From TrEMBL:
This is TonB-dependent receptor-like beta-barrel domain-containing protein. Gene3D superfamilies: TonB-dependent receptor, beta-barrel domain (2.40.170.20). GO terms for cellular component: cell outer membrane. It is found in: Cell outer membrane.
């Protein structure tokens, strides 16, 4: 017989969501330019939260109405008829800009912090904040290494996780242009997201397994070659990779939020102990910061070119209209990382299940986005 690990609570209230929205819609220049601005505010909660119990209780959790979050933001839309000629060239432009933030508004009575996604959140904290193991650095920003030449890891535990960035973008923008001249029309849409971070789980696995390009390029590649030569010539691997940074020569570090808190009590020197490439990368695998990726991107989402046959051409046929068009999607993509489409990992913090990025804010296994080009024929009878 199986028993639930969660104690039932007959006093639970349903999840509530209260939304407010206000905006303004303006037209200028005989309706040729339109501006629509909106402010929205959504209160989610009190949401049901599984609060941990003391081991003596016998069950791990009990449900309470414990979390209320505040999601607020702005959206601005612009529409403009830049050129308008009945029989000539026409150019219409539409643009949309939006931004939002979700923060922790309230916690259940008697609690000052909320443990979620590996971090203790306080009222006012952003819910899409991502925490994990960061590099330990000195006051000059140099990465601290152990006396053995490996990366110095902070103490384990959620309390030592450092802030590594926010999952959601600073803002998103979309711009669509529609141009036409007589029977020809051209349209194209650019989309962009600026800001935000994500943990690249696939990159971490590839680096640790030696299949990532970076694991055999640059300083790693040069050191691997030296190690291969030493193995070929001497039968042993001579450690050849020197981590860039410093080593503690005196004093014992103390940590707060994954970083040294007693820097004035320590002395440092340049790291001079080489290690094998694989041991360094294996040690690096435990560092979350190294595998964080900027989520910013710009893409040409769609472009199409169309031609509509004139009515005079169709007068002697049984057709009322005929148009041909070629359409392309995902034609251009600009981002810091080219081997993944950040648009496929759009989720930041998910209010419905209080998860980060739908799971852990990670780039995981997912079907790749494709570039498509198609030809359309539209016929009217």
């Amino acid at each position: 017989m199986d028993y639930s690990a969660v104690i039932a609570n007959q006093n639970l209230n349903p999840y509530r969501r209260v939304s407010y929205e206000t905006g303004i819609d303006m037209k200028f220049f005989k309706n040729r330019v339109g501006l629509d601005a909106t402010y929205f505010r959504t209160i989610n909660g009190p949401q049901i939260y599984a609060l941990g119990n003391a081991p003596s209780v016998g069950q791990n959790f009990h449900n309470i109405n414990g979390i209320t979050t505040l999601n607020q933001g702005f959206e601005v839309s612009l529409n403009a008829a830049i050129f308008k000629r009945r029989e000539g060239f026409n150019w219409n432009l539409s643009a949309n800009w939006s931004t939002y933030r979700e923060t922790l508004k309230e916690i259940a009575d008697g609690y000052n912090e909320l443990w979620l996604n590996g971090h203790n959140y306080k009222v006012g904290d952003r819910m899409d904040a991502y925490y994990g193991r960061a590099f330990v650095r000195d006051n000059q920003g140099n990465i601290v290494h152990t006396s053995a030449g490996l990366i110095y890891q902070p103490p384990s535990g959620d309390s030592q996780n450092a802030f590594l960035g926010n999952l959601n973008p600073d803002f998103s923008i979309s711009v669509t242009n529609n141009l036409s001249y007589k029977n020809w029309s051209l349209s194209f849409q650019w989309d962009a997201r600026v800001g935000g971070k994500i943990y690249d789980f696939m990159y971490a696995q590839a680096m640790n397994g030696g299949t990532a390009y970076e694991s055999a390029a640059g300083d790693f590649g040069a050191a691997r070659y030296k190690e291969w030569v030493s193995l070929r010539d001497n039968g042993t691997i001579n450690p050849s990779y020197l981590g860039q940074g410093v080593v503690i020569t005196s004093g014992t570090p103390k940590f707060v939020n994954g970083q040294i808190s007693n820097m004035s009590e320590l002395t440092f020197a340049r790291n001079s102990t080489p290690v094998t490439v694989q041991s360094y990368i294996t040690n690096l695998y435990n560092n979350t910061e190294y595998f964080m990726v900027d989520r910013s991107f710009v893409k040409l989402r769609e472009a199409s070119l169309s031609y509509s046959f004139p009515k005079e051409f169709l007068e002697r046929t049984f057709l009322r209209s005929l148009s041909l068009s070629i359409v392309g999607r995902n034609l251009l993509y600009f981002a810091k990382r080219k081997d993944m489409d950040m648009d496929s990992f759009a989720a930041g913090f998910n209010s419905s299940d209080r998860s980060a990025g739908g799971a852990k804010g990670n780039v995981g296994l997912q079907s790749t986005s494709t570039r498509t080009i198609g030809f359309n024929v539209s016929i009217g009878f």
